[in-house]
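User: Some background: our group keeps a shared notebook of sequences we're curious about, and every so often someone picks one and asks for a predicted structure to add to the entry. Today it's my turn. The entry only has the sequence so far, pasted here. Could you supply the structure so I can complete it?
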Amino acid sequence: MEINPQAGRHAEIRAAVRELCRGFDSAYWQKLEAERAYPEAFVAALTRAGWLAALIPEAYGGGGLSLEEASVVLEEINRSGANSGACHAQMYIMGALLRHGSEAQKQRYLPALARGELRLQSFAVTEPSTGTDTASTRTLATREGDRYLISGQKVWTSRLEHTDLMLLLARTTPREQVAKRGQGLSIFLVELPPASQWAEAGLAARPIRNMVGHETFEVFFDRFAVPAENLVGAEGQGLRCILDGMNAERILIAAECVGDGFWFLDRARAYASERRVFDRPIGQNQGVQFPIARAYANLLAADLMRYDAAARFDRAQACGPAANLAKLLAADASWEAANVCLQTHGGFGFAAEFDIERKFRETRLYQVAPVSTNLILAHLAEHVLGLPRSY
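Assistant: Of course. Here's the predicted structure to add to the notebook entry:
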């Protein structure tokens, strides 16, 4: 029984993505867990099917889908039991390039990305000393002739070994020379050399051991050269440009959380109906029923907020508050569903063969990243509710 009232929305996309994901079953993901490996075959299949080029306009060889349609792709990946976190960056990074890149940049990169010849999977923004205080970025890009020399440090830069391009935020004007913190920042589309040439180019990276499928690095730049033509948008206006990518990211992550939430609820209600204790299915007990029903109600509400935010983005309307709300509500709803599913299964929820503990870890991430729940609340308090700034 389908419990998602939005299931008829973009039904063809849902069916196609589900069919692809059937080829990557529980055994596939459990093998990756055991080997701490990256899902190369899964990402390659998504690329061949064109799903990672969904947001690229048809004129450049892409799918020409709206953000709403793209969000359904990621939702269905996660609802299938897979993990779109291994490759979702290629969608949300696209927002800055599509809206602020030059025509020459689009002609150079988008067709190759659409064909799968190039990968855009890394977003170098966060720094060890600044965290989510993006305006305090210290990495410096200094113009010398027809290139910028970049020096500084980034952290939580994911999929560095599985990408050809990186979107990087750096200061082109030192902070002490600007009137406002958010001024003087610029973004660059960086072509990464082969790993064997990193040291020679002024690039070093240290892997951070963390969750499987989220290979991430601390990255060091020492006069790393980037052609001036790879500046995206106007110099010094990078924060405004990158917000388009961040809003897209929040909406797409919300969709992933919705997919996770429905996966957890599907598992919880099936197990509650089948598992018998004291000669009755445990789902007959209201102590089991009510948490599942409440998690379902909260997930549906979050899903509606996701569609509202996506519609605003697609209409090029201001969508910052809506995108943040969608991410907040969907992450909370998914985490609630995860806890309910685990509790419903009892001890079996911790057995790897059930996949619940894996998905439980995956969806917990979204309480923290790509922006923490507390930072969203602070944003809403100040920018929507007019309360005094807290930080």
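Suggested note for the entry: Residues 238-274 form the longest helix (37 residues). The first strand starts at residue 120 and ends at 124.
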